[in-house]
Structure prediction request, 174 residues.
Amino acid sequence: MDSKLFWGIVIIFIGVSLIVNYLFKIDLPVFKILFALLIIYIGVKILLGSFNFKSSSYEDDRSGVFTKTEMTPESLSKKDEFSIVFGNSKIDLRNTQFESGTKLELNAVFGSMDVKLPPDVFVSLEASSVFGSVRGAERSIDGIGEQESEWGDASKGRHLRIKANAVFGNVHLR
Prediction:
């Protein structure tokens, strides 16, 4: 199911339920139904492979679903991403080769991600959390919110731009 189609149906459903409630005084549990539809949508997307998640734990894979992964990538591309859904992931970047200014996106959905960073790296962190937590060297964010922070010595090492997203999960940067 295409995301445009899904969200179009959700918006139409909200409008129809408001009209039904106003005209016929029928009270529909709109938010409970929307939450159930969202869960069904995510399940269908995972089953159809639309999220491009792989449920294996090979060293080169960058994501996992219902699994425990330990990754030690040799290198990062200029823009890279790691994701975990309903699982645990340990990522060791201490000996990983990457260019200064590399953008790294970390996603933990109902899961946990522990990332070990090189000591000589300057980190710019953009953290986003929805009922989860993102912890960096300097700051942490819990619950719902967004926050930006930086740490490390910019003159000594490489620059790594991290965007960390935690939805009912946690991302821990060390």
Summary: The radius of gyration is 20 Å.
